[in-house]
Specification:
With 152 residues, this protein is an all-alpha fold. It is 82% helix and 0% strand. It has one domain (2-6, 39-147). The chain contains five helices and no strands. It is elongated, with a radius of gyration of 17 Å.
Length: 152
Amino acid sequence: MAAFVRISAVLVGMANVFLYSPAGDGELGNAFILNLDPWWPQNFLYALSAIVAGLLVSSIFLRFARRELRQSFFARYGVMVLAICLGGAVLSGFLAIAGTSFDSPLTVSERLLEALSRLPFTVVAGSVLGAAEGVILAFPLAAILGRFRIAG
């Protein structure tokens, strides 16, 4: 069960990164404009953000919500919606910091201030999108988790 939760969290994060990259990663937030100049380090950083966010959130929920994952379908569904919502918030924060570090020709202190000023908005937007995504994705994930028989 733990491996499935971690793998699915990383896969959901990677899918969000692949959707984020062509859909709004242009300069100044222009949609569908790929910035191919710093292509590989930026995409590597995005993928690393998705992996770290997925593993972080799945480890937290495996640590604190393992009992709820063993209960009824609706308990698993609620935990999965909350996990995907939290994962969206964490991933959006990571992506905002990664995008700020590559997009603008600012000094390091100006980039830090820009990232910190963007962070509250992106975390709220990521958690709202994560909640909307979690309502849909939690159904199959909770059903698959119900198939695992956990001893103890």
